Amino acid sequence: MSIMAAERFIPEREPKRLFEITERTLAALRRGGADLSQLGVPAPPEDGETDLWEDVSVPQARARTLAWKNSMTAADHDDYLKWRFPDLDDNQRPKALSDWLDSVVEAKRQKARPSTMHFIVSGNIGSGKTTAVAALGNEASDRGLLVRFVQHATYLTWRRPDGGPDGMSRYEIRRRHVEDPDLLILDELCGEMDGVQTEFVRRETTDLVGSRLASGRPTVFSTNLRRDGIKTVLGERLLSRIEDRAYLAKVVGQDRRMPHKPLDW
User: Which stretches within 113-224 are classed as H helix?
Assistant: First the structure.
């Protein structure tokens, strides 16, 4: 190669294979705050000192916020992204939710395990449980935690062979909900499973709960079932692990979805 040809040779401008994702492309996506997990790209290791919103880089903070919004979109809950603690009424226990979130954030800052690992929100259908846990997730995301939302039945469906959305593997589904989030919100615990007792449900839920407990990552559960109903599905042993070091907040009140005037059917 001549000297002039060598001077014109720029590796970054060499042709790339079709659909190849280069480091330059990844760098551009990170600067824009893209959720690279959507492309199957593992998250880069985080600096041990960059844990919360005030410490992380802007692209990393944007990526965490996008991860939360994507999980809400996947659950078809975009309209819940507007809720914050001041929007809740007393029946939805905003003070208890706020105090617990403070303890989770402080534990994250101290690189410690939260004293209360699980927050259980129980109540009748339409009582406002999902709004309450969505507000918690919105506030937690605003404060820099990596938060994800998923319904229990949806997670189990995604964990079946070829059940993941967008071709995601069972491993990717588990990593996204079990290993990655600082806080996981598992909505409708045992929903639509009344009386279901299958090895798959218990094995997958035990793995989710047990693995997050072992790694010191807190989880929020919402459910409209009573304790006996959950025990029927998950068994006494797993239920005791969920109840261990848990705070129970009961949401009371009438069904908020009922029309003010009864419908004449």
Answer: 129-142, 152-158, 170-174, 199-214
Find out whether 217 and 181 touch, Cβ atoms under 8 Å. yes
| This prediction's pTM | 0.76
CA 230 – CA 224 distance, rounded (Å) = 10
Residue 209 CA, distance from chain mean position: 13
In 3D space, the residue among 164, 150, 231, 236 whose CA is nearest the CA of residue 193 turns out to be 231
pLDDT, tens only, 168-216:
999 999 999 999 999 999 999 999 886 777 899 999 999 999 999 999 9
Provide long-range contacts, Cβ within 8 A and 24+ apart, for 98-106: 98/139, 100/247, 101/136, 101/139, 101/140, 101/143, 104/140, 104/145, 104/182, 104/183, 104/218, 105/52, 105/140, 105/143, 105/144, 105/145
CB 123 within 8 A of CB 250: yes
Largest CA distance in the chain: 88
Q: What is the DSSP letter of 116?
A: S
Question: Contact 134/81 with Cβ under 8 angstroms?
Answer: yes
By the 10 Å C-beta count (0-12 exposed, 13-18 middle, 19+ buried), 55 is classed as middle
151: enclosing H helix or E strand: strand 147-151
Nearest to 136 by CA among 206, 76, 72: 72
69 dihedral zone (left: phi>0; alpha: psi -120 to 50; beta): alpha
Q: Are 53 and 132 in contact (CB under 8 A)?
A: no
